[in-house]
Design brief:
With about 130 residues, this protein is mostly helical. The chain is built from five helices and no strands. It has a domain of about 25 residues. Keywords: Cell projection, Cytoplasm, Cytoskeleton.
Length: about 130
């Protein structure tokens, strides 16, 4: 086997060049956020003040923040005018296309009992074994 080469120690110039290249790459892909928002989709747990401290007047609630919070709790049909995903398309329009007429016997056949069906039902009940 060949003898293992010893690595040359890095000098300060090379280490500084590596550091400069790393920081320039970081700055190129870095995005600076200056405005922060509370996520309206998470539940907020408010904490009460300390019992022995003197509280100032209740802070006025921001109406825009309350509107965002209340809107996040709504169903998708009340939030949006049209479905946002393909799975929301199923069942988006829940209103029936035509009004149903319950008196039309062609579409609504209810169970009817006559004398003959009542008699046969009673006969079947007498002949069936009772399991207890």
């Amino acid at each position: 086997m060949a003898a293992a080469k010893e690595k040359e120690p890095l000098n300060m110039v090379h280490q500084n060049a590596i550091l400069c290249e790393t920081t320039s790459k970081e700055h190129k892909h870095q995005k600076l956020y200056t405005q922060f928002y509370i996520n309206p989709y998470t539940k907020i747990h408010s904490l009460t003040g300390k019992p022995m401290s003197v509280h100032t007047a209740v802070d006025e609630e921001e109406p825009n923040f309350l509107k965002v919070i209340h809107r996040s709790r709504l169903e998708p049909m009340k939030k949006y005018s049209h479905p946002q995903t393909e799975s929301q398309e199923i069942g988006w329009n829940t209103t029936p296309l035509i009004d149903s007429d319950r008196t039309d016997q062609r579409l609504n056949s209810y169970r009817k009992n006559t004398e003959l069906t009542n008699y046969m039902e009673a006969a079947w009940r007498l002949n069936e074994p009772i399991f207890r």
